[in-house]
Design brief:
By secondary structure, this protein is α/β, with parallel strands linked by helices. It is built from 5 helices and 13 strands. Helix 4 packs parallel to helix 5.
């Protein structure tokens, strides 16, 4: 028997037919998928919210977020959903997942306010990560909160310094109510007694060294003038070899203080 070779043009026709058939099958499959995912049965019917909801009720969250969402169970953009929830006041982070066939699951983490941030006229809040956020300060649960301030983006540094100072002044039963970092890098604290402390420039190690030197001798100085530590009105720790303080009714300079560093 003689084998007859298939003509080239026939092979090309067969191959073309196969390609067209496969393209038709793929197109039909895609059309079917698009039709299925748009079925009303897959429209988002509910959003389950859990996690931290101390400052936002579940009903309010749904009411605020739902109008901003679009798509079905398959087509909805989870990143968009997350962004919508994180835009709600007090919400720090949202984790969003699908629940077949037509629901979403959202787990929220709220900001934990640890201090006010900013000046008196434009107070915001700062959380325990040093992140500044917008929210109604009247909804703060903790009372009172300290006030921190500094250049934009310096929240973590200011909060870290506040925690260091809180520990050291707390050993003298003094509370740090306010801490500010100027644009020039200088620190200033205000105590619960109303005393203002000029801490000077530098990082945690430098400022801590000045504060420790100050607190080690504060009791001796106040006792010398028949005063308590709570009688402190102001202190300037920016001197090279000492510090200057003012007590109620008394003004003095401790050690041979050099002029403050500019």
């Amino acid at each position: 028997m003689t084998n007859v070779a298939t003509p080239v043009d026939v092979k090309l026709m067969n191959m073309t037919a196969m390609v067209l058939y496969l393209a038709f099958v793929v197109a039909a499959a895609l059309a079917a998928v698009r039709w299925v995912v748009r079925l009303p049965a897959f429209d988002i019917q509910g959003i389950a919210v859990s996690g931290d909801v101390s400052h936002n009720s579940v009903l309010n969250l749904r009411a605020n977020v739902a109008p901003r969402l679009s798509g079905t169970f398959f087509s909805i953009d989870l990143a968009q959903v997350r962004t919508a929830f994180e835009a709600v006041p007090w919400v720090r982070h949202a984790v969003v997942s699908r629940q077949f066939p037509n629901r979403l699951q959202v787990v929220l983490q709220e900001h934990q306010a640890v201090a006010y941030w900013g000046s008196e006229g434009e107070l915001r809040l700062i959380n325990n990560y040093g992140e500044v956020f917008e929210a109604n300060v009247g909804e703060v649960d903790q009372d009172p909160l300290p006030r921190l301030n500094g250049p934009d983006g310096q929240g973590p540094e200011v909060l870290a310094m506040y925690r260091v100072l809180l520990k050291h002044f707390g050993q003298m039963d003094l509370q740090v109510d306010e801490l500010e970092l100027s644009r020039g890098g200088s620190w200033r604290a205000r105590l619960d007694t109303g005393a203002t402390i000029e801490l000077g420039r530098g990082g945690s190690a430098e400022v801590t060294a000045r504060v420790q030197r100050f607190l080690k001798t504060l009791t001796q100085v106040t006792t010398r003038y028949a005063r308590r530590a709570s009688a402190l009105e102001s202190a300037d720790l920016r001197h090279e070899n000492g510090y200057a303080i003012r007590l109620r009714g008394v003004s003095t300079i401790v050690a041979a203080a050099a002029p403050p560093k500019k």
